[in-house]
Design brief:
alpha/beta; four-stranded mixed sheet
Amino acid sequence: MKSKTAFKTIEEFLYQENKTFVIPNYQRGYKWAVKEKDETSVEKLINNLISADKNQQYFLQGITVVEENNEIILIDGQQRITTLYLLLWCLKKERIKNINLKYDIRKQSKEFILNLKNDSFNIYDFDKGNKSQDIFYFKKAIEQINSKIVEIKSDELRYNKFVDFLLNKVTILYIVIDQDKATKTFTMMNGSKATMLQEELVKAEMLRKISLPDFKDKQVSTSVDENFTDLKEIIAKDWETNALRSRYAREWDKWLYWWNRKDVKDFFSVEKPLGLLLDYYHYTKRTIRKTEKFTFDGFRILLAENDKSEKLKTKLVFKELRDLQKSFEDIFNDPKMHNYLKMSLLCSTGNDDKYEIIDYFIVKKHGENLTDDYAKWRLIGATHRQITKEHELRDDEVKKESRAQDVLNQLSLGFVYQNSWDLALKQLLRFNVEEDNKLHEGKGRKFDFKIYGAKSLEHIHPKSKAFHKKEIANEDEIMTIVYMDGNDKDLGLVEPKGSEWLNRDDMEPNCSEHCIGNLVLLDKNENSKFNNKPFDAKKEYYFNVDEVFKSRNLLHTISVFAKSNWEKENIQENKRKFIERFKQDYGI
């Protein structure tokens, strides 16, 4: 069959007798209700239709389809057709009774569209949790349409004129193509659109290749039995292909749903629809440079890089993606692996390094001690090479043990808060995470990493209530002793008195209100609630169960505030314990 085109009005197009409009499984979800800039595509279309001259023809661009028996498969234009379907429903429910619109594969979308024909159907009772992207945007589109046509529906004359215009004046260019050109045409037409994502093109291409026929042209036999056997085999293979394509589409959508969960996006710090799945898969392929970003064109090379058939190669690639997706989910769902991976990712220095970290965890995911050790070394700034290639390092290259000694030296000084803030934060983060990993009989608890960030360190004894002497020379070079607090604020000539004051000058060498012994990890949004309060007031607030306080989940921090008091001896002892633990953990 050759391609053909014709102009059709909306009535001629939508109200074809005994025809079903099919949204094929490789199409993207319904997205026209998404807000872009000042208005959605739905609002733009309705505004244009309302403001159009009702006595003139209105051209609504082309619709590309495949005609197959009693089905009209929408290759390009499904967003417009679905929106027109919803518009007709909003104008009057009965107007969609004779229109059959079916979302192939997407079961819930298909049910929602079908239920619109039911007079008692309440759209807000369907998928109340809005777990389906299509359903959510169907509802949004209906709300947007209703807000635009409320005045039209209140005026019978205007309503009739608008409906007549919509059905008989709005015109599309109806383009029919052959079935074997369908997905290729879809990919070509949508590939040039800014709104068509690379991930969606990959899905369409894989579903196209998995749908390729298994049979070459067969020689017609004179035997009826042989021909009947061949026919049964062809039908069975065709059924198997359709079932496989449907399963692939459903699996892909499950992956998409998982990567679009907020907790997953936050954990991996990604906004792309399929997160790191395709990027990392692309990275693992040696035929493509690791520094090259994932692209649709690059992925197509992967699907045709050896002598296997396109269909078989697609199956192999899909299996690799499935296994990789499972690895991502396994690591994310295992509390201890989740915690070690996130600590490591917090230390990544770029995409290549990020992929090396992920690669290490996917390969070593069954070796807990290996991942524990890896995260520990990343937190002091050791590189992937220093950790995994230590036996290959040259004599002039820095070893991870040397890096640990350097960090210990920095964290042993008296002014860690000012000079080694990030190193202190990461070590206190590690201490808290390790306490979470001991919970639930050693299975661990997922740590809430939202706590990590700017201003998450708190002085246990407030720096505003610590003081030290400082000599200041006047114009005659006469030295005068003044007192300064931990914020370097001048306190005057008289030494502060009272139990709430901490004298830095009385402390051990390399100890002060700014040393590691007086620092603790808190949620960055709760830090200000502790600001400048004495230890007793902080402790009372910390353990007040009537207050919602995220930092109460920090088990290492809890152990600090469980102390009965907090004086210079406590700070010095806490620092000694920190140093001893650091030496033990890093083998110094």
